[in-house]
Design brief:
The protein is mostly helical. Helices cover about 35% and strands about 10% of the residues.
């Protein structure tokens, strides 16, 4: 987490001359387009906790759930591009929804990525009585049943 905080700080400092005025000099809002307790929310809170001592300002989590994450993402897209509003973006509203529907934001044009701070693994499971053959990568930690 300490390396993520340093990377984010370098990204903030190196992106714009606006920050020459002593960025940050007020709290930073982190829009999470999901409800509290969801994976992106938890990860954003963990990163924010590590960034507070580095940045010297609080990071305020602003949960804006709804419409598969597109409501909060739209809110973040309309914020002033001053570095005081961040988006804890995730695959749904950033890559999936734009390919399925017309949205009031364009992930390619309205956002600039700063850092990857979370990855997720998904698992497909079925009832054990279903007669399917299990497939597992060599690095899979789940017990193999054949």
């Amino acid at each position: 987490m300490r390396n993520i905080a340093r990377l984010l700080l370098l990204a903030f400092v190196g992106t714009n001359t606006v920050f020459a005025q002593g960025y940050p000099n007020r709290p930073i809002k982190v829009v999470v387009p999901w409800p509290p307790g969801q994976a992106t929310d938890i990860a954003a809170r963990m990163v924010a906790e590590k960034l507070v001592p580095v940045l010297g300002q609080p990071l305020v989590i602003d949960n804006r759930p709804g419409a598969g994450g597109t409501i909060g993402t739209e809110i973040a897209s309309k914020a002033a591009p001053d570095g005081y509003t961040l988006l804890a973006g995730s695959s749904g509203p950033m890559t999936i929804s734009p390919n399925l529907q017309k949205l009031p934001y364009d992930p390619q044009k309205d956002f600039a990525p700063i850092s990857l701070f979370q990855t997720n693994q998904c698992v497909l499971v079925v009832n054990p009585s279903l007669p399917v053959k299990q497939w597992c990568r060599p690095t899979c930690s789940w017990p193999r049943r054949h």
